[in-house]
Amino acid sequence: MEKAVFLPDTELHEALAALSADAQVWVPAGDASKPDLVRFQRYRPGLSVRLDARSLVSAKEVLFPRSEALLRFVKEKDLSVPAGHRLHVDDTRTVPPAVVFGCRPCDARGFLTFDRVFLQGPYRDPYYAERREKTTFVSLVCRDADGACFCSAVGSGPADPQGSDAQLIALPDGYVLRAITQRGAALVEKIGRGPTAEQIQAARDMLDQAGREMVGEGSLTAMDAAFRARFQDAAFWHGHIDKCLSCGLCTFVCPTCYCFTITDEARGLSGERIRSWDACMFPHFTLEASGHNPRPSKVERYRNRVGHKFSYFVSKYGQVACCGCGRCIRHCPVSVDIRAVVRDLPVQEEVHA
Amino acid sequence: MPNVVSKNNPYLPQMGTIREIIQETPNIKTFRIVLDDPEQMAAFRFEPGQVGQLSVFGVGESTFVINSPPTRREYLQFSVMKTGEVTRALHRLCEGDPIGVRAPLGNSFPVEALKGKDILFVGGGIGMAPLRTLLLTMVDRREEFGDITVIYGARSPQDLCYRYEFDQWRAAGVNLVLTVDREFPGWEERVGFVPTVLAEEAPSPYNRVAITCGPPIMIKFVLAGLKELGYEDDQILTTLERRMKCGIGLCGRCNIGDTYVCVDGPVFSNTQLRQMVSEL
Q1: For A87, which residue in chain B has the nearest alpha carbon?
Q2: What is the tens place of the pLDDT at every residue in B128-152?
Q3: Which Pfam families does the record match to this protein (chain A) (predicted)?
Q4: Torsion-angle region of B58 (φ positive above 0: left; ψ -120 to 50: alpha; else: beta)
Q5: Quick check: B90 pLDDT over 60?
Q6: Which pLDDT does position B205 carry in this prediction?
Q7: B14-105, what's its fold?
Q8: Count of domains observed in chain A
Q9: Which domain holds residue A205?
Q10: Which residues sit opposite A7 in a β-bridge?
Q11: Which single residue of A130, A346, B94, B140 could bond A95 by disulfide (Cβ 3.0 to 4.6 Å)?
Q12: Is residue B3 pLDDT above 80, yes or no?
């Protein structure tokens, strides 16, 4: 390990405070009233940091806020022009450096889906790009997969370095923090202390162990053809999705769901054009002004969600748009399991005469 | 290619001013828009079929085809049917009002591939807008194309757009066949649904490309009618519409399978339509 430090448990807050000096630091933390409801929060002294717990939502909002102003506009009264006002539109913004500290490898990898869409064309999203360039991801090598996790089934794994700038490896009394990228190396320099040979060895052992672990069964990465063959099979989709409530939770907790809406909000002479998270599970998502809806029921909508992640994205970009974090399974109120749906795509049912 | 959609921020509209508004039908208005920056206006280039997003700040944006041809660039023309929130707000605007424009977006008709061919346009109602940009391109480059036949229909004479141009089209050598759904006093052109008139006219598919746009039910029967006349899938072009927000392939709602109507469309051949997942 070329660039690595040891961070004792007792110095975690000190390290986070040090990083906070020149960046927004986001950590998984429990709410005061609900310590087990863990989500990413801006670090502040006294925060109940929970590196040990899986967060309810990913760190998606650090690069892709739930809601953000794309533009601001002001109408300035001016009777010398025919309209009686001039319109000023402003898209200036400031993006502070940020650190996501202690997300899981799946969360960091989830942004690879965003990168493909938001950075690599045909158009580049400047809002995402600016945050991406200024954010350092420190993921924690995962040792506590649960029954909903399936990162290995989408080509990732509990020690996956893709998308992470540095990795935390938990030891009994602290963490070895290992740099993966240049940006990670710059962060590692700021905190911790030189690790002992024993600590390095223990970290190596754990990385090896985690790297060999298979989380989730089989592989869900080559389902493009099976999905297309299944597209028109109404009985298949009904069978899997009739219980769906169309609540959209799966999309909001998903680290790779990036669909959004744009709405204008104005009051008096000024307003904002706002981008917000949206969900393909909602009927209004594709409802046209004429009343026509190309995805009129939850069957078409859920089929699109599965297709987007495991077929369309694969045929377009050669990768699945799923990081296997399992949140959509863990938190679904009616226990829809996307793994089961995708796994069943190529399965031929027995035909009963 | 100079492009109004900013490379730095493709969400940022260019500011323009409405020069002229034409009431086409009781619920369709045409807007002639000039970009406020004269350099941007002079540098603006687009291909027939490309679209633009019009902004009413405080209400939102919607996508419309640029229905003026690239051969006439004194203004950008959009025709808007009053249907939803943004289109209602657009209809409230007046000449001289500011408006935001993000254009050009999307793909275009394969003009170069159509050279030397006979052309059949089949349009219904507001569906004439995307056809108009290509039709006028061909009118302005008339010698590069063969016969141009236009079958254009609407419910009633007053629902036909661009009525004030019909004489010019005919004078330019366009075989214009007009039809309305039923008899109206004073109407001396054809009567009947567009697919019926198409079957009666029966333009030969030999060396011809058909381009159709209109309400979904009309397109359905026109496609069947063209097939009946012997047109192959790759001789038929149409445009698709979808609810759109970003217009730049990101927001995720206008997809049909892995095809995004906003960036891969709006123009598709019937061959392409048949290869898509069936989610029209």
Answers
A1: B98
A2: 999 999 999 999 999 999 999 999 9
A3: Fer4_22
A4: left
A5: yes
A6: 97
A7: Elongation Factor Tu (Ef-tu); domain 3 (2.40.30)
A8: 1
A9: 4-344
A10: A175
A11: A130
A12: no
Searching chain B, which residue's CA lies closest to the CA of residue A228?
Answer: B277
A349 domain residue, yes or no: no
Q: What is the CATH number of domain B112-239?
A: 3.40.50.80
ipTM of predicted assembly, 2 dp? 0.92
Does any CB of chain B come closer than 8 Å to the CB of residue A290?
Answer: yes
Q: Does B91 lie at the interface with A, CB-CB under 8 angstroms?
A: no
Contact between residue A303 and residue A293 where contact means Cβ atoms under 8 Å apart:
no
Where in the sequence of chain B do the CATH 3.40.50.80 domains occur?
112-239
Report yes or no: B124 and B154 within 8 Å, Cβ to Cβ. Answer: yes
Please, what is the average pLDDT of chain B? 95
Which residues of B are annotated as part of the binding site for [2Fe-2S] cluster?
Answer: 246, 251, 254, 262
Q: Compute the average pLDDT of residues A58-78.
A: 95
Residue B1: predicted pLDDT: 38
Q: Has residue A352 been placed in a domain? A: no
Residues 244-273 of A with CB under 8 A from B: 258-266, 271, 273
Question: Are the beta carbons of A40 and A55 closer than 8 angstroms?
Answer: yes
- Residues in chain A with CB shorter than 8 Å from the CB of B257 are 307, 311-312
* B276 close to A (CB below 8 A): no
Using an 8 Å Cβ cutoff, are B106 and B50 in contact?
A: yes
Beta bridge partner(s), residue A136: A99
With a CB-CB cutoff of 8 Å, which residues 97-136 of chain A face chain B? 117-118, 122-126
Q: Does B192 touch chain A (CB under 8 A)?
A: no
Residues 140-169, chain B: which have Cβ within 8 Å of A? none
Residue B230 pLDDT > 70: yes
pLDDT digits (tens, 9 = 90+) for A114-160: 999 999 988 999 999 999 999 999 999 999 899 999 999 999 999 99
Contact A73 B57 (CB under 8 A): yes
What is the pLDDT at residue A303?
96
Distance from CA of residue A25 to its chain's centroid?
A: 17
